[in-house]
Design brief:
Elements lengths: L1 E2 L2 H8 L8 E8 L5 H11 L8 E4 L9 E4 L5 H4 E5 L6 H12 L10 E7 L6 E8 L5 H11 L23 H26 L15 H16 L25 E9 H11 L3 H19 L9 E7 L12 E7 L7 H17 L3 H4 L1 H8 L2 H16 L7 E6 L6 E3 L2 E9 L9 E8 L2 E9 L6 H21 L1
Parallel strand pairs: 5-6, 9-11, 11-14
Antiparallel strand pairs: 1-4, 2-7, 2-13, 3-4, 6-7, 8-15, 9-10, 12-13, 14-15
Helix pairs in contact: 1-12, 6-12, 8-9, 8-14, 9-10, 9-14
Length: 478
């Protein structure tokens, strides 16, 4: 068995009936796919997708983080389901169905994933919605799982032979308890290590950066460390205070989901014209769309929105098991009316956080999680969410850009037309999340929102297309 790392465990700990940590993908397929085809594919390739073969084993009394154990008898009939949309099978109907599925928590007694084959889409298409608990995968490992199930040609490749099952080498109950007690004894050392690493970077860490005195303490300790080490001075982070918006505060258990596609060629055209990055353009397009939505609802703040931007910490050599992700915060310049000025402001803000993304702040999520005894982390996570839910929160929106393959892929011989991410919203991060996945010349966008906060979520996707078109038109006019 393998123990969950501290970040994996936090994705379990913060879950409530309204804060659900499912991440998913909505694949749009060119033609028909049968459930029998899908079951056959999974039976042949399940061994290539380890997160699909693991179930949770909890430690008695919550003394330590749970473990992953191999499940040698995964019940595919339970995990793979089949439904159909009523006619006419439009995109909004599909989005409504995905929103309902995404809001449902996964059964923790089984491997933490489900698939839904959805028939009845207009144009003879089929959809495949696949959700996994965030404790089991992050964006990079999710892409790896997807790659294990897909082919690069209509002719399915032969899957490697299923290896002989190895002895599990499991941890018995007594050993799990002993490890948990040892972790409590060693915990003060974890706390000291976190404080040493984090204090110079308090102004970069969401929530902690808002504490009284955090910024001057961070500045003084960082200057002292720089003088002792002789390293160059790092840029100062501006104070980021998230303004209140209609999607700030406590979310409900209900979701809305909308999706769209943006031409990658247009994004690159804007990128090249203004000397920025693809990610800068994505962030600026999101800023423009959110500005338009807020104007429509007479709710545009005078100050910029604050976005949480997930970054992968994985290295090419692998980077360890479990979630290897951090969250950086940046401004979106939604208060800027001019699209080009807004793009350049976003570029400057993104450059600033990249320049400060040193090892210590980058791993703040893991170190904060590791600092507290496991028996208390669940209570602490839920208490923190409950406390912050009554405020505007440290951020307004989550925006993520995940790179994907730039060639056509196939599921059991059926071409994948698009793959739209479906991510997480929480009381702390706000009731809106925009996630982008690049695939075969397109940026496939998924927008998940709290139903009561953003009932008109399809307007956001309309404004995303408008925002990119506006930038592209400005390039052509120069």
């Amino acid at each position: 068995m393998r123990q969950l790392n501290p970040v994996d465990a936090q994705f379990l700990n913060f879950e409530t009936p309204t804060n659900v940590a499912n991440i998913a993908g909505l694949a749009i397929l060119e033609g028909g796919l049968t459930r029998a085809d899908l079951l056959s594919l999974l039976a042949r390739r399940l061994h290539l997708a380890p997160p699909f073969r693991r179930r949770l084993v909890t430690v008695p009394l919550g003394l330590d983080r749970p473990y992953w154990a191999d499940d040698t008898r995964v019940d595919l009939d339970y995990h793979v389901r089949e439904i159909a949309l009523p006619a006419p099978g439009g995109d909004e109907q599909l989005g409504d169905q995905v929103a309902r599925l995404h809001a449902r928590p996964l059964d923790r007694g089984r491997p933490l994933w489900e698939m839904y084959l959805i028939h009845g889409l207009a144009g003879g298409r089929t959809a495949l919605y696949m959700k996994v608990h965030h404790a089991a995968i992050d964006g990079v490992t999710g892409a790896d799982v997807l790659a294990a199930l897909l082919d690069t040609s209509p002719d399915p490749a032969e899957a490697p032979a299923v290896p002989e099952p190895e002895p599990d080498g499991g941890v018995d109950t007594a050993e799990m308890i002993a490890r948990g007690v040892a972790g409590v004894v060693l915990n003060p050392a974890n706390t000291v290590r976190f404080l040493v690493n984090a204090v110079p970077h308090l102004d970069e860490i969401p929530v902690l950066s808002q504490l009284p005195g955090a910024r001057p303490i961070s500045r003084v300790t960082r200057d002292l460390a720089r003088r002792l080490s002789g390293e160059p001075e790092t840029p100062v982070m501006p104070r980021l205070t998230a303004p209140r918006t209609p999607f700030s505060g406590r979310i409900t258990a209900h979701r809305r989901f909308a999706f769209t596609a943006l031409p990658l060629a247009d994004v690159k055209h804007v990128k090249n014209a203004f000397g920025v990055t693809v990610n800068d353009v994505v962030m600026a397009v999101c800023a423009g769309a959110l500005r338009q939505w807020l104007i429509k609802h007479d709710a545009l703040p005078d100050q910029p929105l604050v976005a949480g931007v997930p970054f992968s910490l994985r290295v090419p050599e692998g980077g360890g098991a479990g979630n290897q992700v951090t969250l950086m915060i940046t401004t979106l310049a939604t208060q800027v009316a001019d699209p080009v000025e807004r793009l350049m402001a976003v570029h400057d803000a993104m450059s600033l956080i990249k320049g400060r993304a040193s090892l210590a702040p980058a791993r703040w999520i893991q170190e904060v999680s590791d600092m507290m005894p496991s028996a208390l982390t669940g209570l602490a996570a839920r208490a923190a969410f409950n406390l912050l839910a009554g405020t505007a929160g440290p951020i307004n929106v989550l925006i993520s850009n995940v790179p994907g393959p730039q060639l056509p892929l196939y599921v059991s011989g059926v071409r994948l037309l698009a793959y739209h991410p479906v991510s997480v919203i929480t009381d702390v991060s706000g009731g809106l999340n925009i996630t982008v996945f690049s695939y075969d010349g397109s940026l496939d966008v998924g927008v998940i929102a709290c139903r009561e906060m953003v009932p008109d979520v399809w307007l956001v996707t309309d404004y995303l297309r408008d925002s990119l078109s506006e930038l592209r038109l400005l390039v052509e006019q120069e």
